[in-house]
Amino acid sequence: SYSDGAKRELWEETGVQTKTEPELLGSFWLEKDYPTRKEKERFEVFRVAYDASMGPIVLNEEQINEQWLSEETLKQLYRSAPEKFSYPLQLSCRLIFKFVR
Question: Which of 9, 41, 44, 64 is the most exposed place for a label (fewest CB within 10 A)?
Fold first, then answer.
């Protein structure tokens, strides 16, 4: 299921395991043309509340420019310079910010 995939990705990317079900914030379809291929992806955006009992956050070394941010910090960065965000992250942020107070 998408929820199981979200939990697995959370573990693979951060070393954090959740005992609760991830909250589905929404989804979107993205098509992008590159010189050698056309990319088509469906994105499912989930949220999990982190607490220290879930273990330490250890970001995956294979990722580039990966950061652990609070929703509020992400919102501030997005509002100040949305052009610095990849298009999929821009679309993800729109879903996330519907739920940030």
Answer: 64
